[in-house]
């Protein structure tokens, strides 16, 4: 894994997820922890997506995701669904970066 096409596909998915997170964050009060977490994760996805395409690096404060992967049945379904997608993006990103392409 690691071709330019694969990097571009993962980057495109990351940008799409960032938009989904931005949209979802608007459902929560601007001062709430969940709003802050969603907005922060969107920034992380954008930075990592840009890095895949431009190989520009990711700022230290945007390297680690703190996004919860919550499988609790009581969790918000939309939040739970997007958590799975975000985890998949981070896994794919790590595979690409670890392959040194």
Structure description:
Helix 1 (4-25) packs antiparallel against helix 2, helix 1 packs antiparallel against helix 3 and helix 2 (33-54) runs parallel beside helix 3 (77-98). This protein has one domain (4-98). The mean pLDDT is 87. With 101 residues, it is mostly helical. The protein is built from three helices and no strands. The chain is 65% helix and 0% strand. It is elongated, with a radius of gyration of 14 Å. The longest helix has 22 residues, at 4-25.
A few lines on this structure:
The protein has 101 residues and is an all-alpha fold.
The best one-word shape is: elongated
Provide the number of structural domains.
1
- Tell me the number of helical segments per DSSP (H or I, 4 or more residues long): 3
Alpha-carbon distance between the two ends: 8 Å
- Tell me, rounded to a whole number, the average pLDDT: 87
Which class best fits the helix and strand makeup?
mainly alpha
Ranges where pLDDT stays below 50 over 5 or more residues in a row are none
**Care to count the β-strands?**
0
Largest sheet: none
Radius of gyration: 14 Å
* N-to-C SSE string, H for helix and E for strand: HHH
Strand content: under 5%
Estimated helix fraction: 55-70%
Please outline the helices and strands:
Blueprint: H1 4-25, H2 33-54, H3 77-98
Helix pairs in contact: 1-2, 1-3, 2-3
Descriptive key words:
101 residues, mainly alpha, 3 helices, 65% helix
């Amino acid at each position: 894994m690691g071709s330019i096409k694969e990097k571009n596909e993962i980057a495109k998915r990351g940008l799409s997820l960032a938009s989904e997170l931005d949209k979802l964050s608007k459902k929560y009060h601007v001062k709430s922890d969940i709003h802050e977490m969603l907005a922060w994760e969107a920034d992380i996805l954008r930075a990592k997506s840009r890095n895949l395409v431009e190989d520009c690096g990711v700022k230290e404060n945007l390297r680690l995701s703190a996004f919860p992967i919550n499988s609790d049945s009581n969790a918000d379904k939309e939040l739970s669904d997007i958590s799975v997608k975000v985890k998949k993006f981070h896994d794919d990103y790590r595979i690409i970066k670890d392959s040194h392409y």
